[in-house]
Amino acid sequence: MYSFEMIYDEAEDVLEVTFDAVDENFSRSVALSEEIVLHTDANLENGWAITIYSYARLLEVGETDLHDLAGIDEPFRSKLLAVIAKEPISRFLAITDSSAFRARVLAPRVSDL
């Protein structure tokens, strides 16, 4: 089980989930799309946090484009996809088509986290 902090701003429709203490000197923030930002360690091994803008709207659609991944070189993109595919990030974002950069935003139950 992970320790986490989850903040949802209903007025702005923004979900911020932090899974680990983030050391800004050793972290990376990578935009996957206009609505989704992944925060990882500097080596792209673990997801530390995820920020999802328009969260409620993205829950209503079947899939969303992670179009910013298309402009990233392959080795870097592969590492990002691996971070997304493992817990705890995979509880909030599921890759549905890695070649087309498509994913589904999830709403996990707190007990699942």
Q: Please identify the structural class as seen in this structure.
A: alpha+beta
Major sheet: arrangement of strands: 1-2-5-4-3
Distance between the termini: 6 Å
Largest beta-sheet characterization: 5 strands, antiparallel
Total of DSSP H or I helical runs spanning 4+ residues:
2
Rounded average pLDDT = 90
Describe this structure in words.
- With 113 residues, the protein is of the alpha+beta class.
- It has helices at 55-60, 74-85; strands at residues 5-9, 14-18, 27-31, 36-41, 47-53, 64-65, 93-97, 102-105.
- It has one domain (5-107).
- The protein contains two helices and eight strands.
- The strands form two sheets. A five-stranded antiparallel beta sheet has the order 1-2-5-4-3.
- The radius of gyration is 13 Å and the shape is globular.
Short key terms for the protein model shown above:
about 110 residues; alpha+beta; three-stranded antiparallel beta sheet; 2 helices; globular
Question: What would you say about this model in short?
Answer:
By secondary structure, the chain is α+β, with helices and mostly antiparallel strands. The protein contains 2 helices and 8 strands, in the order E-E-E-E-E-H-E-H-E-E.
